[in-house]
Design brief:
This protein is mainly beta. Helix content is 4%, strand content 56%. The strands form 17 sheets. A five-stranded mixed β-sheet has the order 5-3-10-7-8, with no helix packed on it. Strands 13-11-18-15-16 form a five-stranded mixed β-sheet, with no helix packed on it.
């Protein structure tokens, strides 16, 4: 599509003449377009037609194919077809020239509306018709027609478009449209297919679609004409509305002129002609542009300051000040003995500066004679009599005030250094606030100490009335307080003394003496200690204790401050400097049984195991200390028969001789009898003996874990139990002729 150029009114006239001359031709074209229009979409799929014709079979028949202008049929002309065969024809419009298939006529009849036929369109716009099972002669003709398009023309309010509505246009032809605005309106925009054509004339415009090949739309939009009133204002106010104000043709427009605070309207100019200081203006029936301008001026105010009686002013007493600005300072000065009270408008600032002035002002400075306030205050620990707050006129005298201290206190001075009491202030020229100061009374406590100690604090100690004073009494090392005198009277000895609520002088004196300590002496049954009980010992002295056992008892142990020093006959505490304890423990007298063990040949045996009343000793232990009584014993040795007996202790030591007989019983006949484990229970170690060579020994705990294992290859072996805890264990002994398991109890 091509866009047209713009036309002026002269060109438009000749265009109309040309249209009138073209009407007959257009009528002929319209008649041609009234023919049937069967348009096949040039981009659709190919159409396939199937026609089952009937007739008398002949060896050869002919199909005559022809096409009108605007397209072709292939094959064309007279086509020879064997009877019973199919024959297809392809019909193709000249799509690039704007043509489409309008009809397909077979044997003089249109087949476009034949419901028995399938009519398809392919992408090229071609159609295919097929004669099937041909039996007779036929004819086929394709007709074509130029495509037509619609241009939809619309116009908004305020103007017109000619022609308007849905306008039909033949493929490739041109079509123009005249757009005109009504009175008071102008063309705002022209949209072709929804897209603006850009800037156009305001009143008349012609747009031409050239070589039309598709449907289109054209839309004309209009807007009412407007005039501009330019509204401006100077500083100090505003005009509403302001700026470039658009006003519709023939309308009215009002403007309001408003000064800012502190300003007033000075003048209003319409098209630069003064209309006076008006607050509003209306333009009626606007048909052209205008200007309106408002001028404003700032307000000014007068400030007048006056002095009342008994004073004068300095500074500018009459001032002219613009709105919002500040005046200059004015200060009121009272005469001697007078003071400035206030300005007549109630303000009290002096000097005075009026700021941000917004009105006229006239004020007078007011003065009055001075009066002074005398204030007397009692400090802590005292009081006052007399009038404690007095108002006195300038140059007059006050009345007396007297300070009275509380009990235990005295008057010192007034806070301004005056010591008069009572006090009278004369010829008063200023205010006064003073405080009576009091101080507490003090007393002396004289603190002294004898030899071998000290007292703190010492000497002349000053103490405030009603307070407390503590003295610490410190004896030398090894000494203690022996005497405490308060104001010459004895008190119970102590290492600290406090005077409470002191209201008088006092004295304190202390004497010292050597310390004494207590040794608690005691004894168990079976003897005594001498001395016994709580024994007092002077600091640094010695103290001897003797221990005497009863008949049949001996000193068994001595405990000094719960620590054993063994069985001694006496004990001396040397240079006693603290309390102690001593305890004597006694036990019955014991005698010894000494065993001499030999074989039948008189040869000594030094590794036998002796059990006294069932309690086995270590191998080779032959001497036992026991209290008098009768005891059973068993003497055991590997390879010998056990020897048993009884021994009695009375009042002396005993030697018991035991002879062991060799056990010549064969090992293999009495293996279990010859296997010995001792001692059992055991504490530190255990010995295993066997008549056969022991190859391996294992110790197993109650959880089944092997806690000891060793290869022996001997008949006797000793095992240390230091790594085992209390409990029951199993000894597994491998002699080569079998494995024997025994129980052993470990007791720590």
């Amino acid at each position: 599509m091509k866009h047209s150029t713009h036309f002026n009114l002269f060109s438009l006239f000749f265009l109309f003449i040309g249209m009138l001359l073209a009407f007959p031709v257009a009528g002929i074209q319209a008649q041609a377009l009234d023919e049937p229009d069967y348009a096949l979409d040039p981009v659709a799929a190919p159409i396939k037609y199937n026609l089952a014709s009937t007739g008398t079979a002949t060896p050869t028949v002919f199909i005559t194919a022809s096409a009108g202008s605007g397209g072709n049929i292939d094959p064309v002309g007279t086509v020879s077809v064997t009877i019973g065969d199919d024959q297809a024809f392809t019909i193709t419009p000249d799509a690039d020239d704007g043509y489409q298939i309008s009809d397909v006529i077979v044997d003089g009849e249109s087949v476009l509306d034949d419901d028995e036929l399938e009519f398809n369109k392919n992408l090229t716009g071609s159609a295919i018709y097929t004669f099937t099972d041909v039996q007779d002669d036929h004819t086929i003709r394709a007709e074509f027609v130029l495509r037509r398009f619609t241009i939809t023309a619309t116009a908004g309010p305020g103007g017109s478009i000619t022609p308007s509505g849905a306008i039909e246009v033949v493929f490739g032809s041109d079509r123009w449209f005249l757009i005109q605005a009504n009175e008071g309106y102008q063309i705002k925009d022209v949209l072709v297919d929804g897209i603006t054509v850009g800037e156009v004339p305001l009143h008349t415009y012609i747009y031409t679609f050239e070589e039309v090949q598709d449907d289109h739309t054209i839309e004309a939009r209009f807007e009412q004409k407007a005039h501009t009133i330019t509204a401006t204002a100077s500083v100090g106010g505003s005009i509403t509305p302001s700026g470039e104000v658009n006003v519709a043709h023939g309308s009215n427009q009002a403007f309001a002129i408003s000064p800012d605070e502190g300003y007033h309207i000075d003048d209003v100019l319409v098209d630069e002609i003064s209309i006076g200081a008006v607050s509003s203006y209306v333009f009626f029936n606007v048909t052209k542009d205008y200007t309106i301008h408002a001028d404003f001026a700032i307000n000014t105010y007068t400030l007048i300051y006056k002095a009342g009686e008994n004073g004068v002013l300095t500074g500018a007493t009459e001032q002219t000040v613009e709105y919002g600005q500040d005046g200059t300072p004015v200060e009121a000065h009272p005469y001697e003995g007078h003071h400035f009270v206030q300005w007549s408008d109630g303000r009290t600032d002096n000097p005075r500066t009026d700021i941000n002035v917004t009105d006229d002002l006239e004020v007078t400075a007011e003065f009055a004679i001075n009066t002074y306030t005398l204030i007397y205050i009692a400090g802590e620990n005292g009081s006052l009599t007399g009038e404690t707050e007095q108002t006195v006129t300038h140059g007059q005298d006050g009345t007396p005030v007297e300070a009275h201290p509380d009990e235990g206190y005295h008057f010192v001075k007034w806070s301004d250094g005056v010591t008069d009491n009572p006090r009278t202030d004369t010829f008063v020229t200023e205010g006064l606030e003073v405080m009576a100061e009091f101080a507490i009374k003090t007393y002396t406590i004289t603190a002294t100490a004898g030899n071998f100690g000290a007292i703190e604090p010492k000497g002349e100690v000053v103490v405030a009335h009603g307070s407390n004073q503590t003295f610490e009494i410190i004896p030398d090392d090894g000494y203690q307080v022996s005497e405490l005198l308060i104001d010459g009277e004895p008190e119970a000895p102590a290492t600290s003394y406090t005077f409470v609520n002191v209201t008088d002088d006092h004295s304190i004196h202390v004497e010292f003496a050597l310390k004494t300590y207590t040794i608690q002496a005691s004894a168990s049954a079976g003897g005594s200690i001498d001395p016994e009980g709580d024994v007092a010992v002077v600091h640094g002295h010695n103290q001897v204790f003797a221990f005497t056992p009863d008949a049949g008892y001996v000193v068994e142990n001595i405990l000094i401050d719960d620590i054993s020093i063994g069985a001694v006959g006496a004990y001396t505490f040397v240079n006693v400097t603290s309390d102690h304890r001593i305890h004597a423990q006694f036990g019955p007298v014991t005698y010894t049984i000494t065993f001499e063990v030999t074989d039948t040949a008189g040869e000594p045996i030094d590794d036998a195991v002796i059990s006294i009343d069932g309690e086995a000793a270590e191998a080779g232990e032959y001497v036992f200390a026991l209290v008098p009584g009768t005891y059973d014993y068993v003497v055991s040795r590997t390879g010998y028969f056990d020897a048993t007996g009884e021994v009695e202790l009375t009042d002396q030591d005993v030697t018991e001789t035991v002879e062991l007989i060799i056990d010549d019983t064969p090992v293999h006949d009495a293996e279990d009898y010859l296997l010995k484990v001792y001692p059992n229970p055991a504490t530190d170690r255990v010995t295993i003996e066997s008549g056969l060579v022991i190859h391996r020994i294992s110790i197993i705990d109650m959880l089944g874990q092997v806690v000891y294992e060793e290869r022996v290859e001997n008949k006797q072996h000793e095992i240390s139990l230091s790594g085992l805890i209390d409990g029951l264990y199993f000894l597994r002994i491998d002699t080569g002729k079998g494995v024997k398991t025994l129980r052993v109890q470990v007791v720590k």
